[in-house]
Amino acid sequence: MPGETLLHMIVGYWSRGIVLMGRYCLLVPELVLLLTLFCFYFITGATTWLILLAAVIAIWFGCRSSLIIAARQAFHRAHYHRATYLANLAARLYPFSADVKALQGALLMASDHTQEAAREYRRAIELYPGCAALHTAYSSVLLELDELTQARHEVAHALKIHPGYAPAYLHMAHVAQQAGDPISEVETILRAGLQAHPAPGDAAAMRCMLATLLLDQGRTGQAQLVLVGIEELMVHCPTPQIAGLHYYLGELRSMMGELDEARNHYNASEMLDPHGRFAAAAWRAARTT
Question: Domain holding 211: CATH number?
C-alpha cells in the first residue's frame, strides 16, 4: 500500500542517515565533542572551562588533520620513512581513524609488507564501511596474496557501492586477468573504466594494461594509439605511481622492440622511487634489456 511504501522510505532514509552519522563520528570524533560542548553552552551559558575545552579539542583536531595531510604528502613524494612516522603519530592521537589505517596500509604495500597491509585495510573497512575506495584498495592487496575469490568479491562490492568508481574497474580487470577470464572480458572492463572519467593516474594505468592486452593479441597499432599522450597524464600522479607507470611502460616498449625507450623508462622508475616496489625489478630490467 502507498502508506506502507512511504513508511519504508522514511525508515530507509533514517537508517541510512544514522549509519552515515556514525561513520562521520568515527572519522571526526572531535566534531561530536564540539557539538556536545555547544549544547552545554546554550544550556548553561558561557563558562571558562567550556571555552578552554573547546579550544583544546580544536587544537587536537588541527594537529591530527595536519599530521594526516603531511603524511599523505610525504607518501606521494615517496618519502616513506617520514610518511610512516607521521602516520604513526596521527594513529597515537586517534587510533580509530580509517584514514590513518588506509594510509598505513598503503605504506606497508609500498614496502612489500602485504600481509600487514591487508590487516590495516581490513581495520579501515571495519571503521568506515561502505567506502568504495577502501574496498578497492583491499582488493588489490588480496590479489597480491593470490586470494582471487575474495579480491573479486571486494572489488565487486566497491562497484556496487559506487558504480562509477573508475579505480575499481582497473582492479576488477586485474582480478579477471589473474583468474584466467577471457581477454575480451578483461578488455571490456578496462574500456568501461576509461569511460568512467578516471583520474589521470588511473587512466594511465588502465591504458598500460589495455595496451598490454592488445599487444598480446598482435594488435600493435591499436596498442600504440592507446599509449598516445600517456606521459602527459603521468605528470599529475604521485611519485610512487609515476615510478610504477614508468616500469610498465618499460615493459610495453620492450614488448614492442623499442629497447632504448624501455631502458629509459626503467631507469626513470628506479631514479624516481629508489626504495619503492618497482625499484629492484626496474634496476634488473634496465641492465638486461
Answer: 1.25.40
